[in-house]
Amino acid sequence: MTENQQPVLILPEGYQRMIGRGAQGANIAAAKAVAETVRTTLGPKGMDKMLVDSIGDIVVTNDGVTILEEMNIENPAAKMIVEVAKTQDAEVGDGTTTAVVIAGELLKKAEDLLDQNVHPTVIAKGYNLAGERAEKLLEKIKVKIDLTDNVSLRNVAMTAMTGKNAETDKEVLAKIVVNAVKSIIEEKSGKPFIENDNIKIEKKSGGSVQDSKLINGIVIDKERVHSEMPSEVKNAKILLLSEALEVKETERSTEIRVNTPDQLKAFMDQEETYLKDIVSKVKVTGANVVFCQKGIDDVAQYFLAKANILAVRRVKKSDVEKLAKATGAKIVSNLDESSVKDLGFAGEVFEKKISGEDMMFVSKCKNPKAVTIFVRGGTEHIVDEIERAVIDALGDLKAVIEEGTVVYGAGAPEIELAQGLRKYAQSLKGREQLAVNKFAEALEIIPKTLAENAGLDPIDVLTELKALHDNGKISFGINVFTGKSEDMSKLGVVEPSKIKSQAIKSATEVAMLILRIDDVIASGKMKEPPMPPQGGMGGGMPGMY
Fold it and tell me: Residue 339 falls within a domain, yes or no?
C-alpha cells in the first residue's frame, strides 16, 4: 500500500472477522470441545452430567442430546455439532453421543492433515469417499432380525438402556417396551410401521422402577369432575367430546334485563333445562364414561353424577386422540349427531391416587392402537432419566422393526468399518488416501472411548479387537464389565443398523461443512476464539460461549 492509499473497509464498525487457518482452528476447537463434553457419557460405564439452569433446576443425565440442549451453547461451530445430535435424535431417537463423538474426532484428525498442509477440500473429498464406502461396508455386516423373536427385540431394548439409570431394571423395562411397540405396529405399503406418538409415557415419582407397567389403554393426569360420580366403571362405554357441556355463549355481546325475581327464576330454569337436555343426549348414546376436551358446567356435572356417568373435563387434545385410538371411539364434535356407534370400549376405567395425585386409568382395551407406559421411580430425577432410557429403547425398536436389521454393538462395527476403510485407502492414489485413513482412525474413537470410560487400557483393547476382526470375527466387541473382547452375538448386545448409518452420515456431513469454512464474519463483538479443553471439564468448558 502506498502512502496516499487509504485502507479499504468493506464491513461496518463492530464486525469481527477470522480468516484462513485461524477460522478453521477456532471452529475445530469448538467442535472438539462439544465432543469432549459428552464423550465421558458413552457406554455402559459412562458417567452422568449434572446440569443446573439459571433458576436452579437440576437435570442429571448421560443422554447426549439432553446434555447439549440444556447447555444452551452459543458458539456457531459448536451449534452445528449440536444439530448433529438433534438430527440423530429426530431420525432414530438414539445414538446421539456416538454421532457427536465421531464428528468431533473426524475434525480432530482433519486438524492433523491441515498441519501437514493438506488442503481442506482434499480432506473433505476424502471424507466423502470414506463415508460412502463406510455405508457399503455397513451393508455387509448387517444382520437380519426375526421380528417375531421377543428375545432378540428385548436385547435391542436392553442394549439401548445399558449405561443409564434404568440399567438395573432393564429386563423389566425391556419387556414393557417390546410389548408396547408390538401392540401398535401398523402396516404401510406392505411394511411394518410404528408411530411412537401412539405410545404415551406417563411418569410419577414414588415406588420403584419395578413398579413401572404397561397399560393397555391410556393414563390421564386428571380426576373425575364430581365426587358423586363412580370412581370405577367396568365394561366402560366411552364418549369422547370435543365440544363443551356448557350453555353456549352468543357470538355477539348481549344484555338480558331481569326486572322481577320470577323472570330470574325462569331464566335460571331455562338454563338448567338446557343442560339437563344435553346430559339426556349423552345418556341416549348409552355412554357411562365421558371425556370432554373442553369444560363441563357445574349443573351438567350434577346431572351426569345423578345418571351414574363418570366424566372428565379439559382433557388435552392429544390425549383425546390417543383415547380414540385405544378405545375405538370416534371424537364427537356435535352431540346432536352422536350415537352408540361413536362409543369406544375399555374393560375398566378407574380413578387412582398416585403419589398424592388422582389419575384416570383407561385400561383393558381390545386391540388398542395407543398404549401407555407408566413409569415409576424413587425421585423425580430418576423418573426423568428412566423416561429418557425408555424413549431411547422405543427409538431403537422402531428402527429395528422398520429396517429389519441390526449390527453387533460394543465397538464391533466401528472396528470392522475401520479395517475395511484402510484396505479401501490403499486403492486410492491421491492425497484423499490420507483422509480416508484418518476417517478410519476416527471411527476407532468409539471402542477407544468405551474402554477409557471403563478404566481399561484403550491401546490393549484396540490391538486385541483388530487382531480378532482380521481373523473374520466381526461380532467381537469389548465387554466393559470383564475387560475382555467377547462375541456380542452371544451376549445379545445389538443395535439398529440405522443408528450407525445415520451417525456416520451426519458426522461426515458436518465435518465436511466445518472444514470448508475459511472465513467467519460476525456482527457485534466476537469473543475470544475457543481453545481445546485442557484436562477435561475442570475449570469450566472452553469453547462454550
Answer: yes
